[in-house]
């Protein structure tokens, strides 16, 4: 399943450190502009290796296509702009996890998340497994290698599954297809047929697949 957490922070070059001396609001506004293009590219290369090319939340293979792999802010940019470039706040996620999570709170106190001035260094303050602090497999595992479940009633695991919508059809379908690619039973075809159905029917189909596999 790849590495359990990000162990090594990215090392900023001197010119990158200079760049980050810009005021906080300016940095947040410039996130998507040319100003930080190189820095973000270098950071991404570092994180791809650290995360063994897997999304930090759903553990799906990350796409090499820039628009499909996002630099994810654990504490959302919109909730606290001070951590826009805090290296401990950054990880790579797939586009789907990133958009499901959007600006949902991950700190134990909503109001504090917005007013924090220093980046929290304790795992216990976060509602989800923190990519830099927590071992993923102590919180979430994938039953039958595709169905996300919390480990030992982990509240962080429960919250992550909810916040990132880890039980979404697309994710489970991808994992099932990858897992059962060469096995008998026409799994790929089953998933393909389900993908044409309504979200409810598709998810019910996943339940049937689980029942079949058990
Ligand atoms: Zn993901």
UniProtKB/TrEMBL annotation:
Family annotation (SMART domains) = HNHc
Matching entries from Pfam families are given as: HNH
The Swiss-Prot or TrEMBL record annotates one GO molecular function as: endonuclease activity
- InterPro entries (alphabetical): HNH (IPR002711), HNH_nuc (IPR003615)
Q: Where is the HNH nuclease domain?
A: 43-99
Task: Note the superkingdom of the native organism.
Answer: Bacteria
Query: What is the name listed in the Swiss-Prot or TrEMBL entry for this protein?
Result: HNH nuclease domain-containing protein
Q: What is the lineage of its organism?
A: Bacteria, Pseudomonadati, Bdellovibrionota, Bdellovibrionia, Bdellovibrionales
């Amino acid at each position: 399943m790849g590495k359990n957490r990000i162990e090594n922070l990215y090392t900023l070059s001197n010119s990158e450190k200079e760049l980050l001396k810009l005021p906080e609001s300016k940095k947040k506004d410039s996130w998507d502009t040319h100003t930080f293009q190189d820095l973000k590219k270098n950071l991404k290369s570092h994180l791809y290796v650290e995360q063994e090319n897997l999304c930090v939340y759903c553990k799906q293979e990350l796409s090499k296509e820039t628009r499909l792999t996002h630099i994810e802010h654990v504490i959302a940019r919109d909730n606290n702009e001070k951590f826009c470039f805090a290296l401990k706040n950054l990880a790579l996620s797939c586009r789907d996890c990133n958009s499901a999570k959007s600006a949902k709170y991950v700190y134990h106190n909503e109001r504090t998340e917005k007013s924090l001035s220093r980046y929290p260094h304790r795992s216990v303050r976060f509602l989800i497994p923190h990519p830099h602090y927590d071992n993923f497999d102590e919180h979430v595992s994938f039953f039958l290698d595709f169905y996300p479940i919390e480990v030992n009633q982990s509240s962080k695991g429960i919250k992550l599954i909810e916040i990132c919508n880890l039980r979404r059809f697309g994710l489970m379908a991808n994992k099932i297809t990858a897992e059962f690619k060469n096995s008998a039973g026409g799994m790929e075809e089953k998933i393909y047929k389900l993908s044409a159905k309504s979200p409810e029917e598709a998810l019910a189909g996943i339940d049937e697949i689980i029942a079949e596999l058990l």
